[in-house]
Amino acid sequence: MGTANSTTGKVRFAGVNIAGFDFGCGTDGTCNTAKVYPPVTNIPPYYNNPDGAGQMQHFYRDDNLNIFRLPVGWQYLVNNNLGGTLDSINLGYYDQLVQSCLSTGAYCIIDIHNYARWNGAIIGQGGPTDDQFVSVWTQLAQKYASQSKIWFGIMNEPHDVPSITTWAATVQKVVTAIRQAGATSQFISLPGNDWQSAAAFISDGSAAALSTVKNPDGSTTNLIFDVHKYLDSDNSGTHTECVTNNIDSAFAPLATWLRQNNRQAILTETGGGNTASCEQYLCQQFNYLTQNSDVYLGYVGWSAGSFDSTYELYLTPSGSGNSWTDTPLAKACLAR
């Protein structure tokens, strides 16, 4: 099961996705902004949305979690104006969630949830230009440049990207822009192809291509490889039963590569149903990452926020105020 080099007993970061601003986004990079369901209570038209702030306070206070990933659609941020300025109203709502996250003391990942696409076309490869993508990240980096616990998650789940080297060049432009916008030291996530699969990261060329991405000073400090992995039969994260802990197939080989190359990764999506099989395998997976925390910075479960119990992989606690009850899977494997 690989070499265990950790002496800390826990990974640096453990947390949960707080979804809702990404609702309406499809894997083709279309985002129907009318379907956004923010986990922010006091915004129109309902004024009774899920309490993402309360969830994060609970996870931080009661479960010792310290990172939250906040998915959002690119179209929502710019109100469907590709290459345009951040929409003040929509950004204001999203920023409420960001500020609620920061106020807990946790790290907060801004995740653009667009699959390397805008309305079906791939960034820098026939779709939006690199400059249009750089534009949205420059504006976000300028806004949050002074916040040391903001984490810039460049893109959720690129897939079927024809050229991984061209994609890496796009990522490089974004990293340079974020740093030049004043966010000089924060963590930045580098996502590979194949839905960020931890099992494919080396074999599909993502590891080699993204290794060329550097900070303006030539270093790779706080440039973290960003992987996903589910535990169900087809690795889709759509089934409530789990069949693998992903150790031998994904996380052990990747740990070896990360050590050899003196790099680190974070698992920003993983999860399962509230079932005995998922409790078994997800806890095993997290234990392995913890044992190898020299190369794995941590993990973020999918998902809480605006998901309710009808969703197969819900991690949303029930309750309100200061009284929350975790799902069985969160209680078993995420709380620490």
UniProtKB/TrEMBL annotation:
It catalyses: Endohydrolysis of (1->4)-beta-D-glucosidic linkages in cellulose, lichenin and cereal beta-D-glucans. Its EC number is 3.2.1.4. The keyword Hydrolase applies. The keyword Signal applies. One of its GO terms (molecular function) is cellulase activity. Residues 46-304 form the Glycoside hydrolase family domain. SUPFAM superfamilies: (Trans)glycosidases. Keywords: Carbohydrate metabolism, Cellulose degradation, Glycosidase, Hydrolase, Polysaccharide degradation, Pyrrolidone carboxylic acid, Signal. Pfam families: Cellulase. It comes from the Eukaryota. GO terms for biological process: cellulose catabolic process. It is an enzyme of class 3 (hydrolase). Belongs to the glycosyl hydrolase 5 (cellulase A) family. Endoglucanase (EG) that cleaves the internal beta-1,4-glucosidic bonds in cellulose. The degradation of cellulose involves an interplay between different cellulolytic enzymes. Hydrolysis starts with EGs, which cut internal glycosidic linkages to reduce the polymerization degree of the substrate and creates new chain ends for exocellobiohydrolases (CBHs). The CBH release the disaccharide cellobiose from the non-reducing end of the cellulose polymer chain. Finally, beta-1,4-glucosidases hydrolyze the cellobiose and other short cello-oligosaccharides into glucose units. This is Endoglucanase EG-II.
